[in-house]
Fold this protein.
Amino acid sequence: MADLKSDFVGIKSPNPFWLASAPPTDKEYNVRRAFEAGWGGVVWKTLGLDPHVVNVNGPRYGAIWGADRRLLGLNNIELITDRPLQTNLDEIKVVKRDYPDRAMVVSLMVPCEEEPWKFILPKVEDTGADGVELNFGCPHGMSERGMGSAVGQVPQYIEMVTRWVKANTRMPVIVKLTPNITDIKKPAEAAMRGGADAVSLINTINSITSVDLDLFAPEPTIDGKGAHGGYCGPAVKPIALNMVAEIARTPEMAHLPISGIGGITTWRDAAEFMALGARNVQVCTAAMTYGFKIVQEMISGLSEYMDEKGMTSVDNLVRRAVPNVTDWQHLNLNYVAKAKINQDLCISCGRCFAACEDTSHQAISMSEDRVFEVIDAECVACNLCVNVCPVEDCITMEAMAPGLVDPRTGKVVEPDYANWTTHPNNPAAKAAE
Amino acid sequence: MPNDSFTPGVVPGRLEPETYQEQFSDLHPPLDAHEALVAADRCYFCHDAPCITACPTEIDIPLFIRQIATGTPDAAAKTILTQNIMGGMCARVCPTEELCEQACVRELAEGKPVLIGQLQRYATDHLQQQDIHPFSRAPSTGQKVAVVGAGPAGLSCAHRLAMLGHDVVVYDARPKAGGLNEYGIATYKTTDGFAQAEVDWLLKIGGIEIHYGKALGPDLSLDALRDGFDAVFLGMGLGGVNALGVAGDGKEGVLDAVNFIADLRQASDVASVPVGRDVVVIGGGMTAVDAAVQAKLLGALNVTLVYRRGRDRMNASVFEQDLAAAKGVRIVTHAVPTAVLGNGAVREIEFAYVDAAMQPTGQTLRLAADQVFKAIGQTFAGDGMPALENGKIKVDAAGRTALEGVWAGGDCASGGDDLTVTAVAEGRDAALDIHAHLTGKAG
């Protein structure tokens, strides 16, 4: 079984699976259960200054579901810890004492002035915690008070606060980023300039999960009104993967450690984040949906995968896919593929036909007896048929070998790589000549 | 308890009273709202879906399932009922395993079709239990149409005609409407008086008048109907039952399966329906299975269904055959009756085994029997009818008979399977043709 031991900016844990700062890490009882279940570490739910905040007394979560109520996306309007600071600090200390091999990182959010940071950081250090995570991401409630994503949306503030924190603690500092911005690289660079040891992302996305069509109110509804919350869960994973990759593939930030967060539900999700540059991952919604036991599947699944690939350490996986993330302009325009339908697997539902005929390139034919075939002379290899086919591997994209003639264009498939930057239709390419 | 399964002879009350309730409850309990959503989600919303083609009434199945999946079961019901006004009964009695669900691509893919029949029931029940009738009548045309037979064909025809603005008078020989829905279907397939509830709901369209106890022949003449109405639709059932044609087939205890099924449906208490200790059912269709299964459910000790050919030739679907086997019915194939034995009442029945070419093999079988149900087919009986074809009223694709102004559909008419859903389709299509004819738009 592969060794899953993780060292994230000097913080050691038996595996790279941490619980994110969120309701599951709100207090001693939960965190002890998490460690008993096998989680490698936790980021303790965000601490703030006293008097502690309060939460609403109505629904805090909204959701969207797939079939059979499989939870696909969750949104929350819960704030940071609603318990006294000292209570949390006392609990962190005893839990860390009892689980010295697990990572204990404490999430913090205090007003955007240096004094509060000077006040709180020594108290956290005193608990024996391994590091701090700066919550610059929370998009609801706290942001209205000038904290959370209100800071995370202004790179100068990120840099400034990070600098204060680094100046006032010996602990590693992780800066948690909000996705509610236009370019994730800007806040990440700011954190790096401020001296952050790492960034973690993504925090939750501004969202309204649904509208009650009887009350005409957003969900979750509190006494007839609703406020936007933070969206998370499997639905946000593609957004998070892209943001992680954007940072990881920026040369200046290639060495900035990333803790990947966003809809990680299975070992496979975790492996994907790590391949795109995350050195460890944080999980929340999956645990909130299924309980802490899911980490056992993550551990066994990642180990099995690493064994299959001959990887002896999680570091072997980290960044493996980063070199293959590129810009559109660098994609090989000489690569030609065609859809191919495996008639033995086809169940004749006709979804590929409807999709292609109505919304794509009319490249699938349908016979009287419901045989569906690709018309190579029309197929642009868009992949829509593959995506809508309910049968796995029934439709595949097959690359055309160089030298063959693409019946759609009548041109020979070239063996060489050529991209947009040199394409004759690119005005910029011509201008460069 | 005076009787049990071992009591010899034909007697009622073989079971505990509460056992009857259990035995004759819904074969497929209705889906609840969540089950319906999960079942609906399995539909792939196929392009030009094969299930639609497989449905004799061509219900837009993917559309109604999507309407269920999106929380609008009443809209789903309207999609169904627009094509098939007896969608509620068809959801219960259609051999879906041989129609829509057999065509379902998920049957091909995994052997587990989308539960189309049960979803159809979910939607139609949802609407009908609120007593909503989603259709209304067009302005009156002043035309009058007579419909003979208040079964699925007749009522389907009547409803569509009423919708189109015609006034309809329906005549039925029996004291209740519904035809085979009311008299000819196993009790566990349509519980809680659904057949009558459906008729009552259907009649909410208005413009339909029903006269009971009026049969063509003794009470009505086709000529008089043709004179008195602008058009006539014939939707009668099959009145004749084929005879065994063997020595002793007139003995006491040799009965028609259709009457047994009807008695059970009409009994206020099924416990009062007598059943033999040793029951033999002869036939291989749906009626044979309905009779055999219900004899077993009534507490008969031994029930044997005997069919002259192999199982693959049985008209009863594999599902029906398996249902019979699961209820404890023994199925004997390749045997034809040769004699009914007994002194006055039947005691035994003798069969000869036959090969695939129906030639006797020389081997015989004797079964103890105090009750024998014949289910070897029904025939159309009637005098003074329009021209026949293979013993049934000859009709064209639009349901027109050889007589001007007379249409026919359902079991009495040629063409199509003798299924409820086919009768509904034929009644509906004849109504459309009658309407075209009456409004001068006939092709």
Observations:
- Chain A touches chain B through 14 residues (CB under 8 Å).
- The longest strand of chain A covers residues 41-47.
- The two ends of chain A are 56 Å apart (CA to CA).
- Chain A has two domains: 6-324, 332-414.
